Structure formats: structure tokens, C-alpha cells
């Protein structure tokens, strides 16, 4: 198998896969990412229903989304096994090592995705299934197969998949409708993706270079990467606050997310002013804060609606 000049040799069949453990099989589903997506789904569901989602709808939405996201992660592990093997950050993944065979990973990914879509279609509504399918298609095919390997816009274009969970939750909680507030939530999560992942890409630039992945820091350098982090952060802050302006969130949300958004923007702009030798320290700081911001966004979205 070959990607951007990188050749990958499949491990001999039966050598490693026979020693695969339950933990190895679970790891290919990227449960940390899956849980984060479930938080976003729940936030969208809660806001759209005004804080009163039917219990059965909530359970089917979360279960279906969990299966789809975990299935997409397994498909990503299946296809990315060649470049995963070339990067220290990913070379110990179960499929890249051969502990879980590519065929098994593909089967798990397809099965879990199909089950998740069926749960959403039957247990929730067709709109939630469509949103989940779009996210799955963008992540496991467009991003994994094309964007990641061929364009510096991979993080931006792939962000569509990361912004679909709140829409899944929204159409589940609203009975199938997407309001302007729903799209504001979508674009908040979409615009969050570059300021979250580009600092990580800066930290792992040489890994991506060795693997032949055209990440922005590899192709355009750190200066341009930092400019784009500022651009997307500056766009995200006002979009996120529109949820209060449109009446979907209360003032608690506006105050907390406004303060966190301004701090996020301050950190982003700070990157343009620091000397190059401080870049890695700054990238770590921005990456960590992006996780705090996302967690707070999901929590405050729920709390603000509850006391609206």
C-alpha cells in the first residue's frame, strides 16, 4: 500500500493479530473522541428541546451517534494504517502494528456505522440519520482518503464531520427541524476545529512530514499556521454568541462563553507576537485551552438552557 510516496508493508497474517486483546479492539474506536462527540450531541439535543428531551429519544440519539462515531474511527484506523506506522504518535495503534487485522477493523467499522445509522433512523428520525451519515461520509471517506493526504485544508474541510454531532442532537430534540440557531451551533464547532488541531499539527510537524501528510505547518510554515488560528478563532467567537442573540441560550452562556472566547482569541493573537523559540510552548497552551473551551461550551450550553 502507498500514500504520497510512503510504502507500507502489511504485517504477516496471524503473527500479531492472534495476540489482540479486547483493549486493542476497543482502541480502534477512539473512545476519547467518541465521548467528546457525544457531549456535543447531547448539548445540541438539550438546547433544541429547551432542556426537556424525551428520555427514549435521548437514549436512541446517544446510542446511535456513539455507534456511528466509533465506527467511523475504526474505518479511519483501517485506512490510515500506512501513515500511522510512520508517526511516533500513532505507530502503536492496533491496526498499524498488526495486532488487529485490517479486515477486522474494516468489518467493525462498517458494522458499527450501519447499526448506528439504523438506530437513529428507526429510533429517532430520518433527519438525525442523514446528519450522522454526512458526518460519517466526510470523516471516513472525504477526509481520511482525500483531504488528509492531498490538501493543507484537510483540517478545515474535515471539520464538517466534527460539527455534525450537535446537528444530530438538534434535529433529534427539535423533531427534525434546523433553525438558524442550530446552524450557529454547527459553525461554532466547525470553526473550533482549526484552532484546536493546528497547534497539535505544529507540535507534530516532523511526524507529518515523514509520513507525507500535507499539514499546514509542513507546507506553509508556522507563521501562516498561526495566522489561520487567529482567523478561525476570531470568526468562532461572535458566531458562538449568536445563540444568545437568537434566544436559544441565556445570559449565563453569553457571559461565560464570551469571556472564554476572548481569552481564546488573546492566546491566538499572542502567537503572532512571540519569538520562534516559544512556538512549541505556545502551541501546547492553545491546544490545552481549546479542550477546556469545548468542554465548557457543552456544559454551559446545557446549564444556561436549564435556567433560561
UniProtKB/TrEMBL annotation:
Domain of life: Bacteria
Residues annotated as transmembrane: 28-49, 55-79, 100-120, 126-146, 153-172, 178-194, 229-246, 252-274, 286-307
Pathway stated in the Swiss-Prot or TrEMBL entry: Porphyrin-containing compound metabolism; heme O biosynthesis; heme O from protoheme: step 1/1
Top-level EC class: transferase
Known function: Converts heme B (protoheme IX) to heme O by substitution of the vinyl group on carbon 2 of heme B porphyrin ring with a hydroxyethyl farnesyl side group.
NCBIfam families: cyoE_ctaB, PRK04375.1-2
Record-given protein name: Protoheme IX farnesyltransferase
UniProt gene name: cyoE
Amino acid at each position: 500500500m502507498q500514500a504520497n510516496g510512503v510504502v507500507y508493508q502489511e504485517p504477516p497474517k496471524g503473527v500479531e493479530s492472534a495476540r489482540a486483546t479486547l483493549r486493542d479492539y476497543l482502541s480502534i474506536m477512539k473512545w476519547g473522541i467518541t465521548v467528546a462527540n457525544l457531549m456535543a450531541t447531547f448539548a445540541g439535543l438539550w438546547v433544541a428541546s429547551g432542556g426537556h428531551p424525551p428520555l427514549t429519544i435521548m437514549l436512541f440519539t446517544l446510542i446511535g451517534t456513539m455507534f456511528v462515531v466509533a465506527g467511523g474511527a475504526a474505518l479511519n484506523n483501517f485506512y490510515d494504517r500506512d501513515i500511522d506506522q510512520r508517526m511516533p504518535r500513532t505507530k502503536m495503534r492496533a491496526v498499524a502494528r498488526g495486532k488487529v487485522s485490517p479486515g477486522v477493523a474494516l468489518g467493525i467499522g462498517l458494522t458499527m456505522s450501519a447499526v448506528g445509522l439504523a438506530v437513529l433512523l428507526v429510533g429517532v428520525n430520518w433527519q438525525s440519520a442523514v446528519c450522522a451519515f454526512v458526518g460519517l461520509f466526510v470523516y471516513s471517506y472525504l477526509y481520511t482518503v482525500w483531504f488528509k493526504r492531498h490538501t493543507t485544508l484537510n483540517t478545515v474541510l474535515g471539520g464538517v464531520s466534527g460539527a455534525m454531532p450537535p446537528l444530530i442532537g438538534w434535529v433529534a430534540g427539535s423533531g427534525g427541524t434546523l433553525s438558524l440557531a442550530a446552524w450557529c451551533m454547527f459553525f461554532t464547532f466547525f470553526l473550533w476545529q482549526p484552532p484546536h488541531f493546528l497547534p497539535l499539527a505544529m507540535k507534530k510537524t516532523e511526524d507529518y512530514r515523514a509520513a507525507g501528510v500535507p499539514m499546514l505547518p509542513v507546507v506553509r510554515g508556522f507563521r501562516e499556521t498561526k495566522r489561520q488560528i487567529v482567523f478561525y478563532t476570531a470568526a468562532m467567537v461572535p458566531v458562538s454568541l449568536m445563540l444568545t442573540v437568537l434566544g436559544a441560550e441565556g445570559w449565563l452562556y453569553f457571559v461565560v462563553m464570551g469571556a472564554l472566547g476572548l481569552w481564546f482569541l488573546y492566546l491566538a493573537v499572542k502567537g503572532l507576537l512571540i519569538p520562534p523559540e516559544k512556538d512549541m510552548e505556545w502551541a501546547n497552551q492553545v491546544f490545552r485551552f481549546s479542550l477546556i473551551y469545548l468542554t465548557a461550551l457543552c456544559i454551559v450550553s446545557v446549564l444556561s438552557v436549564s435556567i433560561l
